[in-house]
Structures are given as C-alpha cells and as structure tokens.
C-alpha cells in the first residue's frame, strides 16, 4: 500500500459549509487510507494573498520587478516566513488537493494569491536543468507530485458542461490545472466537481462524499489528465503545437494528447 | 463626439513599470479625447481582496453563506464602505478598463478580489427583471457599459496564440471577459495584449502606446466580442447551447456567435 503525504489547501470562508463537510470527510478518508495529511486552511490562517515588495525583503524605494526580486529572495532564503512555510509543505507533500468554491469562474482571491506568492521564480517557474533547459509543463519543482482540484460550484451541471453557458469546466480550470500545476511539473488528476452546491440534499451529500472517498482511494494510481509535455517534442521552438498534432484545431483542448 | 466616463482599474504593484507607463499614456489619451477618467489603483489603495463576514456586517458567530449575506447587505446599503465606493464608480462609468499583468494565467489576487468583493449578489449576479427573469450574460447591472482588458504578459506572442503552449489568450481570459464582465451585462471589447512585457524596447513601447491610443479612440464605437446572450434564444432551459448552433463542437469557443 502506498502511503502519501497530502497537502490539503482549503479556501472557503466558512468551515460550517458543504465545503467544510467535504474537507472533513476527505481528511477522514485519507487517514483511513494510511496517508498523512496537512491542511492549509487559508481563511483560518488569515493568509495574505497580495504580492508586495515586503515578501522579498525588497527596498520599496527601488523599482520592484517581481520575477527578479522573488528569485533573488528565494535563492537567498529571504522570502517571507509565511511563504517559506508553504513551500516547505509542498516539498513535504506527494499530493496536493486544491479545494475551493468557484467564484466568478475562478479561484477566490485568497487562493489565487497563495499561488501568486508561493509559486515564485526559482521555485515554480524559471527553473532550469544543469544544461540550461527550461523545466516546465510536465517538468519542474513539482515533478513526481500529484494534484487534484476539488471544486464546488453554485451552477448546475449542464451549464458547466461541454456546451454549457458558463463554459466547459475543465477549460475554466485550464489556468490552474495546466498553467500552474502542470506548468510546475505536477501530474494533475481529473477534478472532482460538485455542481449545484448551494442546494445539496443529505442524500446528494452522501453521494458526493462517496465519490470523494473513491477519488482519494485512487489518488496514488489514477491516470492524470493527458496534458502535453513542453519537452516532449510536441511543440516547436516558439512553443506552438506542431502542425501534424490536432491538425487544424485551435483553443485549449489541443494541449490534451488524445487517446490516452 | 461621444464623451465617456471611464473607470481604469489598475492592478500592478509597481507604478514605475511598463504597466504604469501604459496606464499613464492611456489616461493622457482619454483626457485628450475629452473623456473623464477615474482610477482604481488597487495596490496604491491597499485594496483588501479577501471576502469576509465583515464585508456584510455579518455576525461571525452565525454561519456565513456569502451569496445570501452579500445580497442582504447590498439591499440594506450595509456593504463595507470600500465596496460601496467601487460600486459607485462602476455606476458612474460608461466604460471599464481592466489592466493587469498575467500572473499564473490569470488576474493578480488583488484584482480577482476586487471582483469577488465588489460584484456581490444583487449587484452583479442574482439580478432579475420585474417578471423574475434572470439578467445575465448580456443583460444585467453593467448593460450599456463597455469593458476592455489591457493585459501585459511575460510570455511571447506565439505561446499565447491559438495553438501556443500557454493557451489561447482569449480563452485564458474567458472567466473574466465572459464569466464576469459579459455575465454582468457589459459589452466586452477585444483585449489589448502586450506580450513579451519583461523585455520591451523603447521602440516597441511606442508601438504599444500607439495601439493603446487607437483602442481608446475607438472605445465608444468598436465592435464588442460576439458572446451569445443568455436570453437571446441560443441556449435551452438547462443553459446548454442548442444543437443546431456550432453543431458538434464543444469548449469555450462555442459561446462566440460566428460571422459577426
């Protein structure tokens, strides 16, 4: 049996909520599965989501270039203590669960700012191998780790489907799942989406909790989303998908390899 | 000549930046065009991006349901003063410019939290007409207003193109342009994207500034993105696109009406 270290990132303002109940259920399941879990409950931590000069020990009188200042502070071990604590949790973790309610079709600001502040240059981007090759989209700091989004949404399921007015949910999640987690090297499992989340009956809750338990049971083994690797030969030197792949097609879906 | 009130929302931590220079250029252009401008410089305002019970005068001992609490506070005129000030600027404005650097393929947290906190229920969602019909996606509080994204991105242009590894930029912006601005009723103009933003030469800056001036000159008249209206007959009762429209296709692109 595979034992994993799991970092559960929780970004809901109210623990006495469907989201809180799902988190508690998930943590019980992880414990029963023999995994270790740590929780970053961003509201409870009063997490500061705003990138600022102070994160980097940067003199505010000097012009701030976020990428350069963050890379310098990261290399020097001078990032804010709250950022370093989250980076240490990520280093410890074999898997990340990213749980949030869908607000305006994206993450709550407190969670977006967890990525903005923790995923600094040198840690999650601007990472190279000894030959100078850029490590991203399938390679990088999070390589070998797994990640899964647990999403609650007020919208009903059809409206988040492939032709639903709110947008196909995996494409709404592309900036997070592909542009952040996969960018940093993590294998991203299919998201667990709980639609109609503001009107879940007790019976529906049991069904959602059961699906969550199943997804956590398969956390070590489930097949990740088949995002294409930057260094796998599918992209040209301008990082454009080569013409023989998904020929004639455009948009976010072309970055999924078919038939896997 | 059409004179407009323009709200310029600026979400960069450093005014002494390409972003700051573009903002200043844009504000000069608006003034020369005879428009009135107000600026919400979120970093300078030290904007708080985190939705919390205190926004709504909500008793923290009681369970918080954000949608209900925000709607109650909005109706009662009891939202936090900082939120009401932004709502008043929006009410004043004929057009919104939303300017930000692309961080992890989305908005900086401080800007996401501007939408999270200001676009409360009753103001930007959960709005109905007297017959009880939901007003969103082309109807709503922002109907009659125009909005345009001004985006700077470190990535180079091909990588943000239709087959670029970072994702087609208008689809990365879908949660904001379609899911937030169009949802609330605004007509969304094509975004102005400045790629390669961390290495812009003086000559390139002049070209970008010129494009910005052109876009601001056509702010009252430019053709908006052809997003489909919720109440225009294109969607069925489950809010799924009817099968004869974009037949057989899926994903975010189906929500643009062709040939317009």
From TrEMBL, chains A, B:
Pfam families listed in its UniProt record: Flavodoxin_2
Domain Flavodoxin-like fold as annotated: residue spans: 4-216
InterPro entries (alphabetical): Flavodoxin_fold, Flavoprotein-like_sf, NAD(P)H_dehydrogenase_qn
CC terms in the record's Gene Ontology section: cytosol
GO MF annotation: an example: NAD(P)H dehydrogenase (quinone) activity
Alphabetic keyword roster: Oxidoreductase
Keyword Oxidoreductase tagged: yes
Family (UniProt): Belongs to the NAD(P)H dehydrogenase (quinone) family.
PANTHER family per UniProt: NAD P H OXIDOREDUCTASE-RELATED (PTHR10204), NAD(P)H DEHYDROGENASE [QUINONE] 1 ISOFORM 1 (PTHR10204:SF34)
UniProt protein name: NAD(P)H dehydrogenase (Quinone)
Organism: Streptomyces sparsogenes DSM 40356
